[in-house]
Task: inverse folding
């Protein structure tokens, strides 16, 4: 069972917790599912919106790294044009 | 949604054969995790091969180290739902993710490894992190007891 994946054939980032930096200034952290023409589908997503956030983005990310991803939305599609950078939260 | 038990059994056994006691009921979790003596590790097992497929071999490697928590437990997320929820209540400051690993003493979480710290990392690297945590938090505690 080691290394067994029940959902083969997906992209390298499938199932990986990623940070997406948005061109609007918003950021999303969630489990990457797939990239389609609609955008990037994430599951179990925490969202940072600088317009409403209580803490700066880096402090928010630091808290997620330490205490885990607090889910604000079960599923989010981040529009392709919005996704400036996609990287692993753990990197 | 839970998986058929026959599919899960090898994943359970990959952990329990290491001497890690599986907790499958709320009562078993409470009996095991109530603050008591010594250090405790809880491995939150899961089906997902993206991360758990690397976490189980990493655990196997790490538990070959001489220093380790005195009590070794596991729950199976997405499968033994009540037991997993109860176990997570003992480390409620940390958001639920699976697989994950908590190292505790007397109800205090000393070290926590989230799923995002496991994903995509080779078992050897993750095992080294676990061993470092064992050395840091469990060195004075001795080795795991048979449960």
Result:
């Amino acid at each position: 069972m080691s290394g067994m994946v029940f959902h083969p054939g997906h992209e390298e980032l499938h199932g990986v917790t990623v940070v997406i930096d948005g061109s609007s200034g918003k950021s999303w952290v969630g489990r990457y599912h797939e990239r389609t023409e609609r955008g990037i589908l994430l599951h179990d997503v925490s969202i940072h919106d600088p317009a409403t956030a209580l803490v700066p983005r880096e402090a928010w990310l630091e808290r997620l790294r330490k205490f885990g991803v607090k889910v604000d939305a079960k599923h989010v599609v981040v529009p392709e044009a919005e996704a400036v950078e996609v990287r692993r939260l753990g990197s | 949604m839970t998986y058929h038990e026959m599919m899960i059994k090898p994943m359970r056994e990959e952990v329990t054969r290491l001497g890690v006691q599986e907790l499958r009921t709320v009562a078993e979790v409470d009996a095991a995790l109530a603050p008591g003596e010594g250090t405790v590790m809880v491995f939150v097992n899961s089906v997902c091969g993206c991360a758990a497929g690397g976490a189980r071999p990493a655990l196997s490697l790490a538990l070959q180290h001489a220093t380790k928590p005195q009590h070794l437990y596991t729950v199976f997320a997405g499968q033994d739902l009540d037991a997993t929820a109860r176990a997570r209540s003992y480390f409620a400051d940390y958001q639920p993710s699976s697989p994950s690993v908590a190292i505790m003493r007397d109800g205090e979480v000393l070290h926590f490894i989230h799923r995002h710290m496991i994903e995509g990392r080779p078992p050897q690297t993750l095992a080294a992190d676990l061993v470092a945590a064992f050395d840091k938090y469990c060195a004075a505690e001795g080795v795991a007891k048979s449960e």
